[in-house]
Design brief:
single chain, about 250 residues, 10 helices, elongated
C-alpha cells in the first residue's frame, strides 16, 4: 500500500507538468474559482454552526457547571481535548458533505478532464462523446451519493468515539484517512468507468489498491494551501496513477 501512496503522490507533480505541457490551465482555473468561492462560504457557515453545536451539547449535558464544581485540572483538560476532537470530527464530516456536493455538481467537468487526460496519454484523438460523458456523470454522481452514505456512517461512529478520553484523540487522524480514501475512490472511478468496470469491479480494484485512493485524497487535502488547484489536479493525477498501475 505504501508503494501505491508514493505513486499517487508522484502523480501530482506529473500532473503539474502534464497540465503545462498540454495547456489545460483553463480546466484548472474555471472550476477552481467556483470551488474556492463555495469553499470559503461553506467554511464560514461551518465555523458558526459547529461552535453553536458544541456549545449546545455542553449546555445540555451541563458539563461546565459540573467541571466548576469538581475543580479538577485533569478533568478540565480531558474535556477541553474532547471538545477539540469533536470540532475536528465535525469539520471533516462537514467537509466530506461539501466535497460530495462538489463532486456531483462538477461531474461533467471531472469526467471530461479525466477522459481528455487519458486520450492524451494513449496518443488517441479526443472526440467529444455526449452519451458517454452523460453515463460517466450519472455514474460519478451515484458513486458520490453511495460514498457519502458510507462515510456518514463511519463519521457518526468516530463522532461517538471522540467523546472518550485518550482513545478519542486519534479519531481525527482516522477520519482524515477515511475521507482521503473515499475522495480518491471517487476520482479514480472516472478512469475505471471508461475501462468498462462495473461499480463492484471498481470497488474491488480500489480494495486491492487502497494506497492509490488514500494518496490521491491526501494530496487533495494538502493542495488546499492553494485551494483553486485542488479539484482539477486531483482528477488528472488520479488518471495518471491508474495508467501507471495498469501498465506497470
Amino acid at each position: 500500500m505504501l508503494k501505491e501512496i508514493v505513486i499517487a503522490i508522484q502523480s501530482f507533480s506529473e500532473a503539474h507538468r502534464f497540465i503545462g505541457k498540454h495547456k489545460l490551465f483553463r480546466w484548472i482555473i474555471i472550476p477552481g474559482v467556483i470551488y474556492t468561492i463555495l469553499f470559503i462560504i461553506g467554511m464560514y457557515f461551518f465555523v458558526q454552526s459547529s461552535n453553536n453545536a458544541v456549545s449546545w451539547l455542553s449546555t445540555q449535558l451541563r458539563i461546565e457547571g459540573w467541571l466548576q464544581q469538581e475543580r479538577n485540572a485533569w478533568l478540565s483538560f480531558f474535556f477541553v481535548m474532547a471538545g477539540i476532537m469533536l470540532r475536528l470530527i465535525l469539520f471533516l464530516f462537514y467537509f466530506s458533505l461539501f466535497k460530495y456536493l462538489v463532486l456531483i455538481i462538477g461531474s461533467p467537468v471531472f469526467a471530461y478532464l479525466s477522459e481528455k487526460t487519458e486520450s492524451i496519454i494513449e496518443g488517441k484523438e479526443y472526440s467529444f462523446n455526449w452519451p458517454e460523458l452523460r453515463k460517466d456523470v450519472y455514474r460519478g454522481s451515484r458513486l458520490a451519493l453511495r460514498n457519502a452514505g458510507w462515510q456518514t456512517f463511519y463519521s457518526f461512529l468516530l463522532l461517538l468515539l471522540s467523546l472518550f478520553p485518550l482513545i478519542g484523540w486519534i479519531t481525527p487522524v482516522i477520519a482524515l484517512f477515511v475521507e482521503c480514501y473515499y475522495y480518491g475512490f471517487a476520482m479514480l472511478d472516472y478512469s475505471f468507468a471508461r475501462n468498462k468496470f462495473t461499480a463492484s469491479q471498481s470497488a474491488a480494484f480500489i480494495g486491492k489498491h487502497k494506497g492509490l485512493a488514500i494518496g490521491n485524497g491526501l494530496l487533495f487535502y494538502l493542495l488546499h494551501i492553494v485551494i483553486i488547484f485542488a479539484p482539477a489536479y486531483a482528477i488528472i493525477a488520479s488518471t495518471l496513477s491508474v495508467h501507471k498501475v495498469k501498465t506497470g
